[in-house]
Design a protein that fits this description.
The chain is an all-alpha fold. The chain has one domain. The longest helix has 41 residues. It is elongated. About 3% of the residues have low confidence.
Length: 184
Amino acid sequence: MIFPVIASFILFLSSLTMPVFALDPVSLEFFDFTRLAYNRQGMYVLGSWALLNLCVGAVGAFKSKGQIQAFHQMNAYWNLVNLGIAGFGFWQARQGSLVINFWEILKSQQQIEKVLLFNAALDLAYLSFGFFLIERGRRLVKDNWIGFGKSILLQGAFLLLFDAILYGFQHQLGIELLDWAKSM
């Protein structure tokens, strides 16, 4: 039930970058601007997710016990890290490029795509670890492990969806950059 809500939330926020495609891609500045705009928008989404989870997690951890308390605690801890990543990523995206030439923009474009693919692989590892904690917690009758595992599943699923959507936008932009270069 929570996954459709997450998907809708990400798609809605991601759609805010669509007007960028309405620009006429006639320059390298367009591609660089668009890449950075996608990164900024992604950091807004990640930061919003982190703040939401921090607030709900902090309140939920104090108002619950057992598995549910562990679930909320892990969400809060996990999203402290997400908030730091979002802040750093947003700051980095706001810095912009100092030199605009095709090779540097292509290198930056390919680098962000590689980072997102690496993150997606990490997200799959998070999902696996979440399942492991749940199963191990059931065998050892440890409610907190089950709660932590469920939280890691939720966070891993969100991050996988987030990274996949952001990768899709960035990858399409990379294809358009190469097509643009071929037409020159």
